[in-house]
Design goal:
By secondary structure, the chain is mainly alpha-helical. It has 2 domains: 153 residues, no CATH class; 80 residues. Strand 2 and strand 3 form a beta hairpin. Helix 1 crosses helix 2, helix 3 packs across helix 4 and helix 4 crosses helix 6. The radius of gyration is 20 Å and the shape is globular. The N and C termini lie far apart (52 Å).
Length: 234
Amino acid sequence: PAAAVAAALIALPIGAVSLRTGGAYFIMITLAFSQMLYFVTIAFADYGGEDGLSMWSRNTAAIGGLGLDTGDDLVFHWICVALLGLWLGIAHRISGSRYGLVLAAARDDERRLRALGRSPYGLRLAAFVTAAAVAGVAGALNANLIGFVSPTPLAWTTSGELMVMVVLGGAATPAGAVAGAAIMVVLEEMLGRWTEHWAAILGPMLVLAAIFNRGGVTGTFARAWSRIRRRGRP
């Protein structure tokens, strides 16, 4: 919870500034804030600076009074799976709610939404802060997994990698981000075993996927399923 709250509090002023723009300007401003935070964190030498800090043990987890041994890799794995499933369920409910529908309208046609008397700014800021809170939890889990905390994830390259995952999986649904991350990790692992120059192969593959596979993997499956259903109708 502390990681989620901290990430949300940091994201609030960043979103308040960056969401007043759009498109490439929004991307550049958020990347600038990310780089600023990166250089701020490496300046704190007492906390490891650029070298980071090692974690001697994982954080404890207590759910409903039941203590869970996060030092056990299997237990920690299922905690991560449970939290992922919980967030996917929440995201699915949000997308079908009134707020989710208005947020989708802000994405698809901002002018029409403004004409109806609704400002997309507050909606986007709430979504931005919520996403940051989820990212904070994910970061805390990753730190516990590898036993190390460093400012490296604040670099712009991490943002680029996450964007590639979303584009690859499909940005229209929460499941798209999960699918994109899974595909990216599997491709890196498989190509890494084959050659040390795996990035030179993965890059063109991702470019082709972005060009010819609009909507990502989940979008492709959704279109295929729609065709199958239409053919099955009398």
